[in-house]
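quick one, 193 residues, struct below
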Amino acid sequence: GSEMCIRDRRESDTHSSLAYLTLVGALGLGIAVTVYPLVQLHYPGGADYPWYVGRLRRIGSLQDVIPFLHGDRGLFLLILSLSGTVTGASREDVVRFAPAMLSVLLALSTFFLVREGTGRVWVSSFAAVLSVVSAQTTLGMYAGIIANWFALSITNFTFAVIIRSIRLRSPLMAVGSVVLSLVLLAGYAYLWV
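---
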């Protein structure tokens, strides 16, 4: 009896480890799929990239960010600007390589949403893989709709936290879902509506 329980536990641990390894693979695939066209094909970026680069060029200091916070993508522009400041990357490179980070964020948010909804790690990992090879990744890269991409990830996290708050009857999780919803509003107002 106990040998069988130990064997089942090992199989379960191996099964779970492979699912998480699949998630890590999805994250790597997301980065590779978005960086390859930039590095190997010298793809200049999506149609909206010049808009983002132009907005980032107007941000010279933290005070310059304040007018953008009143816009529809203010928080996302702030995040892009801070990314450039922290990494020392040019505005163009921040915008060009944002899809790599956004594909990782989309995969993680999809994983967490599906895991909260189903409780199944394998299904969640598979969903994460599908998210990085989805139309959203293609559109995000080639159309340059990166704020929308960011917002979809925040939406997934918001719904995951809502599901968890209902399941656990947690007021803290409910507050967390409201906070994430406000981040969504500040990051890309069009998806919030």
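Residues 2-39 form the longest helix (38 residues).
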